[in-house]
From TrEMBL:
Protein name: aspartyl aminopeptidase
Enzyme Commission number(s): 3.4.11.21
One of the GO biological process terms: proteolysis
Molecular function via GO: aminopeptidase activity; metallopeptidase activity; zinc ion binding
SUPFAM superfamilies: Aminopeptidase/glucanase lid domain, Zn-dependent exopeptidases
Organism from which the protein derives: Tritrichomonas foetus
Length: 409
């Protein structure tokens, strides 16, 4: 199983979806997977993977098409992104980056934090012909969002009424194009455009005498994206295995690299040109869920998952999740036989949670599906908390599912 320090370092080194794709591409290539372009999918054989816009990836282990297991996750997380064409403004001598919120972030947790930048830049070739894309990530803070001193607030309030447009623009001390050009080792005049994410500069940390609690940015949803990749590479089966990781779940998935796109259907068509093939697949939508919160017990229900109690099946009676009775039963049996603790959760009626991408994929393809992942506290905070044992258990469970699913389905 994955080492905790290695896992924490991997999260730190994946500040954006682009960096996840870079990580996955490197790992898959080391395992002798061949990268092919979408227009060559019809020629694909053996173990291969395809990437769309360096934001979504689908990897395939070819095998018997009577059954197939699809592991899926998303690689994006809530953050602040630089507005296009709005690199910075100056206010009373301070440089500020003009940003927009991406996803449903808990904005108050981003103040008074060291922030680094990461993303991708489009670089003009030095000979003036053509462009290329390069990733960047600073390993040092470049700015922060200072809070308002309590003495200056109109009243004592644990949640002051700020708005993101005016009050959450990071203060920076160097121009971003200078920082990025230095990181990439190119003249800033060659930078045509850039996509910039502000992310937590602090590395993940482990808390407690047994170091079991992981406090980290992007647990939602790198905890799923990393473990799904690891399980996919480790597990062995005579049937088709598929890993697909989408971008843009945090903003609805309705993009060409999101779960609502034709990315997965296109790959499935290349594997088996049979309209019934998707019905032979089981789709595992891996995403985090809310853990029991000891400070807000009224917002959870009896039986809500606790940190350290294992992976969780997410269920919703109005089908905001895709979990079905049969797939839930199969996963429970596999977990039981493997000695893996597993939980099931449902949001309380007075505090509906969000939905994930499972229904968006399984519905049009008509494939059975299930939503599962690790429970977390402070989801969408700049730093979330989970139990690392749950991450290891999720990876073990996904391996067991791939290797034993044909006994049940």
């Amino acid at each position: 199983m994955i080492n905790r320090d290695e896992f924490a370092e991997t999260i730190h080194n994946i500040p954006t979806p682009f960096h996840y794709i870079s990580h996955a591409r490197s790992v898959l290539t080391k395992h002798n997977f061949i990268e092919i372009s979408e227009d060559k999918l019809s020629d694909a054989t053996g173990n291969f993977f395809v990437v769309r816009d360096n934001r979504a990836i689908c990897a395939v282990k070819m095998g018997n098409t009577d059954h197939a297991v699809i592991l899926s996750a998303h690689n994006d997380s809530p953050c602040f992104k630089l507005k296009p064409g709005c690199q910075c403004s100056t206010s009373n001598g301070f440089k500020q980056a003009r940003v927009a919120s991406y996803g449903g972030l808990t904005a108050s947790t981003w103040v008074d934090r060291d922030l680094r930048i990461a993303g991708r830049a489009i670089i003009k070739n030095s000979d003036g012909n053509g462009i290329s894309e390069q990733l960047f990530s600073t390993n040092y803070p470049v700015g922060h969002i200072p809070s308002l001193a309590v003495h200056l607030s109109s009243k004592s309030d644990l949640a002051p009424k700020f708005n993101i447009e005016n009050h959450f623009n990071p203060i920076i001390y160097d121009s971003l194009d200078e920082i990025i050009s230095k990181e990439l080792g190119v003249d800033k005049s060659l930078i045509v455009d850039m996509e910039v994410f502000f992310v937590d500069a602090q590395k993940p940390s482990f808390v407690g005498t047994d170091q079991s609690l992981l406090c980290s940015p992007r647990i939602d949803n790198l905890s799923s994206a990393i473990t799904s990749l690891n399980a996919f590479l480790t597990a062995e089966s005579k049937y088709v295995q598929i890993l697909v990781v989408f971008d843009n779940e945090e903003v609805g998935s309705a993009t060409r690299c999101g779960a609502g796109s034709n990315f997965l259907p296109t790959v499935l068509k290349s594997i088996c040109d049979d309209d019934y093939f998707p019905k032979n697949c089981i789709f595992f939508s891996c995403d985090t869920c809310h853990a029991f919160h000891p400070n807000h017990p009224n917002l959870t229900i009896d039986g809500s998952p606790h940190l350290g109690d294992g992976p969780v099946i997410s269920y919703d009676p109005i089908l905001m999740f895709s979990s079905e009775m049969k797939t839930c039963a199969i996963v429970k049996e596999i977990a039981k036989n493997a000695g893996i603790k597993i939980n099931q959760t449902c949001d309380p009626n007075n505090a509906r949670g969000g939905m994930t991408f499972g229904p968006m994929v399984s519905t049009p393809l008509g494939m059975p599906s299930i939503d599962l992942g690790v429970p977390v506290l402070a989801m969408h905070s700049i730093r979330e908390t989970c139990n690392f044992d749950d991450i290891q258990a999720l990876q073990k469970l996904l391996i067991e599912i791939i290797q034993n699913i044909d006994n049940y389905y």
